[in-house]
Design a protein that fits this description.
Chain lengths: 189, 712
């Protein structure tokens, strides 16, 4: 795969370094991994979209319960099908990289957890989120009673303006106290 | 204010750690918090006037209506949206970043070689550090197993296995000391190398009773007779004594240290413990997790954690709803039950006394009966120790404590029972005059302890093989049988297993002097116990329906261990003072008492050194020592008080900060909502490109943008 690395022009590489938190090596590695997902003859184009199903075969994302959400959030596709271009992919890796700031990470975390894309975490979002965390099958889910109690607790703690939903600043308020959020919100190739 | 206080406790939550006991507030989180605080301050109305000149920029007009959500920058960044903030810090897609850059059109800083190299070095260094620390963690044995246990059975069960591992380390150190200081000289410098191994009379039974070939082996005290090493200060008896004494002192240090650190930990958490649920949910998932197995494990880990917290909360709710009448009833019930517990304890002590008496008086010709009578005290002790803790467990179920307290209280009652049983047993051995008149009473004593250790292990192993395993098979084979279904698979009862560990460790300490290889035996035993228990846990146990918290319990585990150690030290001290070593076996055969060995060494020292040592061991030294200790203690106590006050002050400050922050966030949100309604009103008139519900109220810029028209 050594040949694919040279496919990235130098100025593009330095632009990517400017616009993302990734280092040169990481960008090259990302390019290599991304090219592996694409058929050989299509590799030349930079604006090529890789469908979500293919992205999700990567071992880094495969077992993540939020994998689809991640693709949707980072996809710039007009079809809303979660497909990623190489630049989207770099955005993804940048947000999940070691050096991304807490602000960036918490922003994207919020959007990943916002399942219905309405800009706030409401009860439905929270329920989805908890189900993702505990496992989706029936025997791993919390009981409805527990779920209700849990969501009430979360809203009581985080919903500062008491409007029944958690918005971004409230979300970041919670996240900012977590010492290890930055280290756990991380995907490294 | 109360709500704010509850909130602030979250910062203390991170102190909790069941294993490492590493404390210290996370400076990072505090710093971050203050930064966010400033961020919030900046993005409040004061900044609105700055917003004006962004309005018409409309940097993302080409993509805007397709995916409006994505295109909004964060409000926090609004204040330094200027060229100071690197483009990569904007939550935008690459294309948008490019257009933003073109909008800004500042000096396009290209990343030079040096900068690039420096950055990659920085990251490489951080990675290396992470790798090293991960590798250090990986060096610990059974890390993976413990992780799996935690995922499947919760932190409480993991705390047990961590405790087991700790004991293993402890015994490993014991083994090294004994091997180096006692066993090696004894083997190397033996006068007559005629080690009589197996003879015709030996049988497998000797392995259980500690007689025959085992009695002549290095396992027992009698083997370590004074050997060729003949320096006044370098001889085998002195080394033997050094090994045992240093071991005990080291153990005291290790256990006390562990207990104190853990105690400090729980003390800090006490009454500041807040169940920060949103934190668990929002930051719960570790995105580094790879592989379906690990993901499943993490799922159940989070589930267990959440269930545990909910359970505790429900319990506290129930407690707060108790009426006065209920409290009175409860206390009465608890009083009665405690009385019952004491009665049970006393009667079990009497039973052991009775068994010991019978064992000493009855002598039978038949080997089976004599074996039975030989083993009667251990059988009685084990039976009592087996039955009563279960009773205690059920009793504590009636007392309506939270599950963690239930576990702890059962543990305390059972540990009192177990150690008291052991103490009584030792006392009876003492009382038994004929033991001291025996040829080598140390060996006899060692044998008693050895029998206890062996029997303890046998009972454990047989229980696993003959009870748990068939029970599991039966339950699985006949799921329809109602009796079996009611019986069910067993639950892993942490307090009992911890109890076993503490008991066997106490036995090891008590017997160490008389049976030096007991350390090696117990190392082996712990290894076996780990694997057997792991097998039982994974194959024969159901995960408990209710979880309990591990962090407080592990402190208690070490505390009970300290109890055991104290018992052992007291027993050894009494033995050493009350009885002279027997004249024809063991390292101290030539010396009148144990301490003559040290005296002989002392006499070779030069005069001043001798006088100094004498002063240190005399009563005259005790008074200044006590005075100095009092001084130190006083200073520590006052230091502690000052620290306490400082901590309280800091907590108050934290609460204040939080209240401010919450106030600001609230104000921010209401302002935004007002904006949102006005915007959506304007929007529906204007373009109708997007529905108001999709509007993200938080993003200040976007909220103020619509007046620019084209943005939407």
């Amino acid at each position: 795969m050594g040949t694919t690395a040279s496919q990235l022009p130098k100025d593009l590489l330095s632009e990517y370094q400017e616009l993302t938190f990734l280092t040169k090596q990481e960008i090259l590695l990302a390019h290599k991994r991304f090219s592996e997902l694409v058929a050989k003859e299509e590799r030349s184009s930079n604006s090529l979209r890789v469908p979500m199903e293919k992205i999700l075969t990567m071992p880094e994302l495969k077992s993540n319960p939020f994998r689809k959400r991640i693709c949707h959030v980072f996809s710039t596709s007009d079809m809303k099908d979660g497909s990623l271009t190489f630049e989207d992919f770099l955005d993804l890796l940048s947000a999940f990289s070691d050096s991304a700031t807490l602000e960036i990470k918490s922003h994207y975390a919020f959007r990943i957890f916002d399942f219905d894309d309405d800009g706030t975490l409401d009860c439905r979002d929270l329920e989805n989120l908890v189900n993702c965390l505990t496992g989706e099958t029936d025997d791993t889910r919390l009981t409805p009673e527990e779920m209700r109690q849990l969501i009430n607790n979360i809203l009581e703690e985080s919903d500062i303006d008491k409007d029944g939903t958690v918005n971004l600043s409230e979300f970041q308020h919670v996240i900012s106290r977590s010492p290890d959020f930055v280290s756990s919100f991380k995907i490294v190739l | 204010m109360a709500g704010a206080k509850a909130h602030s406790r979250g910062a203390f939550l991170r102190l909790k750690s069941d294993d490492s006991n590493i404390s210290g507030l996370t400076a990072g989180s505090c710093r971050r918090e203050s930064e966010t605080f400033q961020d919030l301050l900046h993005c409040l109305p004061g900044d609105y006037q700055d917003e004006g000149h962004y309005r018409d920029e409309g940097p993302y007009s080409d993509h805007q209506d397709k995916e409006p959500y994505r295109h909004r920058p964060k409000p926090f960044l609004a204040r330094d949206w200027g060229p100071n903030l690197p483009l990569k810090n904007l939550p935008l897609s690459m294309q948008e970043k490019r257009s933003t850059r073109d909008q800004r059109q500042p000096q396009r800083l290209s990343i030079g070689c040096w900068e690039s190299w420096r950055r990659s070095q920085l990251i490489a260094r951080r990675r290396l550090w992470e790798q090293v620390s991960r590798a250090m963690c990986g060096m610990q044995p059974w890390r993976k197993s413990l992780h799996t246990v935690e995922g499947k059975f919760g932190v409480g069960v993991k705390a047990y296995f961590t405790f087991l591992r700790y004991l293993l380390y402890l015994n490993l150190i014991h083994c090294l000391f004994i091997s180096g200081l006692a066993l090696t000289p004894a083997l190397l410098y033996r006068k007559n190398k005629t080690y009589t191994g197996f003879t015709g009379n030996d049988s497998v039974l000797d392995l259980l009773l500690g007689t025959g070939f085992l009695e002549r082996s290095p396992v027992f005290y009698g083997f370590y007779s004074p050997v060729g090493l003949d320096g006044p200060c370098l001889n085998s008896p002195l080394l033997f004594l050094l090994a045992i004494v240093s071991l005990l002192i080291l153990s005291v240090f290790m256990v006390v240290r562990r207990t104190v650190i853990g105690y400090k930990h729980t003390w800090m958490l006490r009454s500041h413990y807040n169940l920060h649920m949103s934190y668990k949910v929002f930051c719960g998932w570790d995105f580094c997790t790879q592989g379906p197995g690990a993901a499943k494990l993490q799922n159940s880990l989070i589930r267990n954690d959440i269930k545990l917290v909910l359970e505790e909360e429900r319990f506290h709710q129930r407690v707060s709803q108790r009426t006065f009448r209920k409290w009175v009833q409860l206390y009465f019930l608890r009083g009665v039950l405690n009385f019952l517990v004491i009665a049970l304890l006393v009667s079990s002590f009497y039973l052991i006394y009775y068994a010991t008496m019978i064992s000493k008086t009855m002598k039978h010709a038949s080997w089976l009966l004599s074996l039975l009578f030989e083993y009667l005290p251990p059988i009685a002790i084990t039976a009592v120790n087996f039955l009563l803790p279960h009773l205690f467990r059920h009793i504590s179920g009636f007392e309506d404590y939270s599950l963690t307290v239930q576990v702890n209280i059962t543990l305390i009652r059972s540990i009192i029972l177990k150690l008291a049983c052991l103490a009584i047993f030792l006392l009876f051995i003492h009382r038994n005059g004929n033991m001291v008149s025996d040829q080598c009473w140390e060996n006899q004593f060692g044998k008693e302890i050895y029998k206890l250790v062996m029997f303890d292990f046998l009972a454990f192993g047989l229980n696993a093989v003959l009870v748990e395993w068939p029970r599991k098979l039966l339950v699985e084979r006949y799921p329809s049988c109602s009796l079996l279904r009611a019986l069910g698979k067993q639950k892993f009862l942490v307090p009992f297993h911890v109890l076993d560990l503490v008991y066997s460790q106490t036995l090891t300490w008590v017997g160490l002097f008389y049976c030096p290889l007991l350390a090696h035996i117990s190392l082996l035993k712990l290894l076996l116990v780990f694997y057997i228990n792991k097998f039982v846990l994974f194959h024969c146990c159901d995960p408990a329906q209710r979880m309990f918290r591990g962090s407080q319990s592990s402190v208690l585990f070490h505390f009970t261990l300290l109890f055991g150690l104290l018992l052992a030290v007291v027993a050894l001290g009494i033995n050493a003072n009350a009885f002279n070593p027997s004249g024809d076996c063991g390292p101290f055969a030539d010396a009148g008492t144990i301490f003559n060995v040290t005296d002989a060494c002392m006499e070779t020292l030069p005069g001043p050194a001798q006088r100094i040592f004498q002063y240190f061991t005399s009563e005259a030294f005790a008074l200044p020592l006590i005075l100095v200790e009092i001084m130190f203690l006083t200073s520590f106590v006052s230091q502690r008080q000052v620290n306490c006050r400082a901590i309280e002050g800091l907590k108050d400050m934290l609460v204040m900060c939080n209240a401010d922050k919450r106030y600001l966030v609230k104000k921010h949100s209401t302002l935004l909502r007002a904006l949102r309604t006005s915007v959506s009103a304007g929007n529906s008139e204007n373009t109708g490109h997007m529905s108001p519900s999709r509007f993200q109220p938080l993003f200040l810029r976007s909220a103020s943008a619509p007046s620019g028209g084209g943005a939407f």
